[in-house]
From TrEMBL:
This is histidine kinase. The lineage of its organism: Bacteria, Pseudomonadati, Pseudomonadota, Gammaproteobacteria, Lysobacterales. It comes from Lysobacter soyae. Residues 261-472 form the Histidine kinase domain. It is an enzyme of class 2 (transferase). Keywords: Cell membrane, Kinase, Membrane, Phosphoprotein, Transferase, Transmembrane, Transmembrane helix, Two-component regulatory system.
């Protein structure tokens, strides 16, 4: 499992547990909170009514006096109130008055007249001078039929003469409890869904940042010349550290490889020059001396050319991207490169032709592209026989532009095709000419890669074809 999904899973588990625990706390607190509020209201109501009933109870007319008359009239009163979306039509209070012994003297619903209520907590505790309240089912087999009762003492001249109990069915409170729970559940799910989306976004972002670093590491492992990874926050710092580490390691490896290869390549001309120097120490004719002096000069020039080309190749290979890319006309650059090699082509008796066409522009470095084309043209001229023709063409193909250079030489041996772009790998020239430095094609490949393209060399029926492919 990917690390991003593991983070998301852990985040969601923690979130789900927290949501479950908080949901349970809130949901379990809704019912008690509503009932506590209702009990507080009942306590106020009971004490208020107890004061109003005091005179009638003391006078012995609690069941027939004005107090009883007004309470009985409550059953006919229509409230017609919209309380938080709940339609309240009537008064749900039930009022019971007992004497100092707990015997019912008045019941607003007329049900329990004469009953002994002294055993109920609301009456019993009030008669004892304590706060009295209870919750009792009206129907023993129906849990939803509970009624909350709160009692208050009825006193006259400081003496306890009775108890007034106010009851309110809990089913009247249930709509508010249900509505509150629904609101909590709805918003809880909304918050959970929002948190989940945030978690998914975080996991995607984390996966993307790690993916950038992983792709960079894989490209480096494959030997590709890729730019530094673009990541955010700490991932950006990690990407920068990886890039610095890569540059230092590559720089060390690059120098070691180049020193080793250059040392190997310089052994041959140095050995040749040493042999010529030893011969020059002996007795030689003027013609022989000129021959060996010329040989020393040729080998020293070859060594200088090799060092210069090696420095140019190192400069290109160490670039991660073009410093100042611009739109350039590739056909014009090709014609300029052909013009610079006109003298060499004439000396080799080789004609260079260009297929006519419209200007084709690419984004790149004109100087480097010209150097790459000069190298390809130079190879084509050198491998072409006297009287041969080098044909050049520039054309667009999809989202890229290609330059094809065909010569009429002997082609590339099959064993050499996979290695022609390696550093210092070269083949003999026409008519037994000496080998080149073997750096030119490596230089071309590096420039092509820097422009987001590639270089190819294949055999044709008439010779060889070099192709430089660049992104538009």
């Amino acid at each position: 499992m990917k690390i991003a999904w593991r983070v998301l899973l852990g985040y969601f588990v923690i979130l789900a547990l927290a949501a479950f625990m908080l949901g349970q706390v809130f949901l379990e607190q809704v019912k008690p909170a509503v009932r506590q509020t209702a009990e507080d209201t009942l306590a106020d109501t009971a004490n208020t009514l107890a004061e109003l009933a005091s005179d009638d109870l003391y006078a012995g007319r609690i069941a027939q006096g004005g107090f009883a008359t007004h309470l009985r009239a409550l059953s006919d009163r229509r409230v017609g109130a919209d309380i938080w979306g709940y339609e309240k039509q009537g008064v749900a209070y039930r009022v019971i008055v007992t004497d100092a012994k707990g015997i019912v003297l008045f019941d607003s619903q007329g049900k329990d007249m004469g009953r002994d209520n002294s055993r109920w907590n609301d009456v019993a505790r009030t008669l004892q001078g304590k706060y009295g309240a209870r919750s009792t089912r009206e129907q023993a087999d129906d849990p939803a039929s509970t009624v909350m009762w709160v009692a208050a003492p009825i006193t006259h001249d400081g003496r306890l003469i009775g108890v007034l109990s106010v009851g309110k069915p809990n089913r009247v409170l249930q709509p508010f409890i249900t509505a509150s729970r629904n609101v909590i559940l709805t918003w809880g799910l909304v918050l959970l869904g929002t948190a989940l989306l945030i978690g998914v976004a975080m996991a995607w972002w984390l996966s993307r940042q790690l993916g950038v670093l992983r792709a960079y590491a894989q490209a480096v492992t494959a030997g590709e010349n890729v730019p530094a990874p673009r990541a955010a926050a700490e991932f950006g710092e990690l990407g920068h550290a990886l890039e610095v580490m890569r540059e230092r390691l590559e720089g060390k490896q690059y120098v070691e490889e180049y020193v080793h290869t250059l040392t190997h390549e310089l052994k041959s001309p140095l050995a040749s020059m040493k042999a010529a120097a030893e011969i020059l120490e002996g007795e030689l004719s003027t013609a022989e001396r000129r021959k060996f002096v010329g040989h020393v000069q040729t080998q020293s020039a070859r060594m200088a050319e090799m060092v210069d080309q090696l420095l140019a190749l190192a400069s290109v290979e160490h670039r991660r991207q073009l410093e100042n890319p611009q739109m350039v006309d590739l056909r014009a650059i090709l014609l300029d490169a052909i013009g610079s090699l006109e003298a060499k082509a004439l000396a080799s008796n080789v004609r260079v032709d260009v297929v006519p066409g419209d200007p084709l522009s690419v984004t790149g470095d004109a100087f480097l592209l010209r150097q790459a084309l000069v190298n390809l043209l130079d190879n084509a001229i050198e491998f072409s026989p006297a009287g041969g023709i080098v044909r050049c063409a520039v054309f667009a193909e999809g989202e890229s532009v290609r330059v094809c250079i065909d010569d009429e030489g002997q082609g590339i041996p099959d064993y050499a095709l996979p290695r022609v772009f390696e550093r210092f790998y070269s083949l003999p020239r026409q008519a037994g000419g000496s080998r080149s430095s073997g750096i030119g094609l490596s230089f071309v490949a590096a420039i092509a890669s820097l422009h987001g393209g590639h270089a190819d060399l294949v055999n044709t029926s008439n010779g060889a074809r070099a192709t430089l492919t660049l992104s538009c």
